[in-house]
Structure formats: C-alpha cells, structure tokens
Amino acid sequence: MRLFPKRYHPPGTPPGTLKTRTDVVVKPLQMAVYDYADAQLQKLENPSLTDIEACISRDSNTWIRIEGHPNAQWMADFGRTLKLHPLAQEDVLNGGQRPKLEPYEDGQIFLVLNVLHRSSADTIEIGQLSVFWNRGYLVTFHTGRSELFDSVVKRLQNGITRVRRRGLDYLLYSLIDAAIDESFPVLEDLGLAIEDLEDQVAQDPDQTTIESIHHIKRQIVLIRRAVWPQRDVINQLLRDEEEWFDPATRPYLRDCYDHTIQIMDLIESYREMGAALLDVYLSSVSMRMNDIMRVLTIIATIFIPLTFVAGIYGMNFGNNSQSPWAMPELRWYWGYPMVWLLCIVIAVVMVIWFRRKNWL
Questions:
Q1: pLDDT on residue 258
Q2: Which pLDDT band holds residue 319 (cuts at 50, 70, 90)?
Q3: What is the CB-side half-sphere exposure of residue 288 using CA atoms within 13 A?
Q4: Predicted structure pTM score
Q5: CATH of the domain at 349
Q6: How many CA atoms lie within 13 A of 262 on its CB side?
Q7: Do 37 and 68 lie in a common domain?
Q8: What is the CA radius of gyration of the chain?
Q9: For a pLDDT cut of 90, what percent of the chain falls above it?
Q10: Domain limits at 349?
Q11: The domain that contains 214 carries what CATH number?
Q12: Edge-to-edge strand ranges of the sheet holding 30-36
C-alpha cells in the first residue's frame, strides 16, 4: 500500500492536459442517467452524448452517474458536451485529489470527496468522488465501490421520498452523506484491529506484532490524509453565498458536517492509540528482557558460591604429608556427601533470601 503514489504530469505540462492513467487497474466505465421530477422518473443505461444533451435541456432534474475510470478521449468529448472546466476534467482523470470545492465563473461547482472502502481484511482503498453541479444537472464520477449509491437510487425510484420530491441540492446532500458514512464501517474495523493488537501487545508480543502496529499506523496516516479536509469542504457548502442550497436542505447538510467531526475524532483517537501501541510494545519487550536477565542473573548468583566451594575442594592439597595445612576434609569418610550438603544448603538459603526480597 503506497502512501504517496505518483499522480502528476511531468513538469512543464500545460494545465488542463488530459492523460489516461496507466498506474491503476482500469475499472470498466458504466454510466446511467436519472432524469426525474415529482411525477416521473426516466433511467437511461449507458446513453449517448446526444441522449444526455436531451435530458439536461428539459425542465427536470438530471443525475448523470458514472462509475469507473474514463479515458482521456472520452473525457474530452464528454467535457466538451457539458462544458466542464478543463482543470476539473484533469482532476477527474488523475485521481487522488485532495477533497475540495471549486466554483467556476460559468456558474458550475466542482466538488471532490474521498470515499473509504475496505477491500480485504488488511487493505483500505480510497475512491474519489468527483461531482459537477450545475443548475439543471448533476454529474458524479466515482472510482470506488460501485454499490455506494444504490441506496440513493432506491430512494430516488420511490416517488414518496424527499430525494425525489426535492431538487438537486437534496440529491447532492444524499450523495455526500452516503460517501461520508462509508467511512464509519472502515473505522469500526480499524478500531477492532487496534483492540486486538492491544491484547496481543499486553500478553505475548512478537515480531509479527510490531509489523501489525506499523501497518495500522500507515493505515491511520492514509485515512487521515484522505478524509481530514472534508470537514472544510462541507463547511464551504454551508457558507453557500450563491444560495444553491434550499434552506430546508441546510439542516441535513449540517448533519453531514457533524459526521465529519465524528470521523475526525475517531481518527485522532486511533492515531493516539497507534502511537501508544508502539510504546507499550517497546515497554513489554523491555520488561520481558528484564525478566529473562533477572532469572539468568539469579541462576548465575546461586552458582557463584557453589563454584567457589567446588574450586576450593578441587585443589590438590589433600596428600601433602609435609604440611599441616593439607585439606583434612579430603580424607574424611563423609567428606564428599558433606560438600554436596553444603552446596545444597547454600543454594536453598539464597533462593529463600531472593524470594523474601521479591527478586524471584
């Protein structure tokens, strides 16, 4: 998992240059158009550019939903038809953009959000949601999980829901809400992984533990970089000076802002826990090493006097008849058992003393 993938043109490339990405697995392009009003809903699968022009020219709400990775030529033709800004088209193709909100002079708004998705047990993917919003239509480009907006589509197909009765501002809120709420399951799984790591660090840390800790910390860095700026984007939408959002929609948008605050709080908590995990791991390893060294030191300490006794009685002074200082114990009948008894008594006394000192 690369934290800083290459997503830029060579230096000197003119701004707005469209280039097909070759560093990702290209996801097949799928497009659907939802043209709706209070009493009718029309859905077009993979429509032509002529069909799209006909939909946006009508007095209705049009949502153009695009999933996958478009190529440069298709993007140029599509952007020319809908008069999309070249810089925004470039951001859609390059991917990996920082969440942002860009208003353009022609009355068009370009919005970028990052959507988290756990593709496997230890891999987190980040899909980019790019939105073009004009007065009569909404265009979304999404490179992540294709089922993300299925719940919004179901509500749109039901004529009694708010997303159907209200305008494109409420539809945009629904899409933003679905994209932001996608982070909560990912963060919940991440929290469970951190809790499991805490138990492992406290009980039996090993080499795989430190690898898991570094993997978790990299994931936290990746998530934080992807979703941290989204609070500012939602805040910009709340300060809408052009009054694109209906006053009845603003409370729902504020709810999205609250969700971004909750996500940031979770990320910061996990970040502190990840840093604490590394400290606890180092402390646990140090304590285990101290325990091992203490046991080895005690064993060596017990054998020091025993080695001293064995060294004394290992000297060859027992048969020296010309000196009164020869070892009389070497000629005793019970001399050998007495030396063993002395060694055992010394070892037992030292063990009892170590226990009373709480060293053992």
A1: 94
A2: low
A3: 12
A4: 0.77
A5: 1.20.58.340
A6: 14
A7: yes
A8: 36
A9: 16
A10: 288-356
A11: 3.30.460.20
A12: 41-45, 30-36, 61-67, 137-142, 124-133, 109-118, 100-103
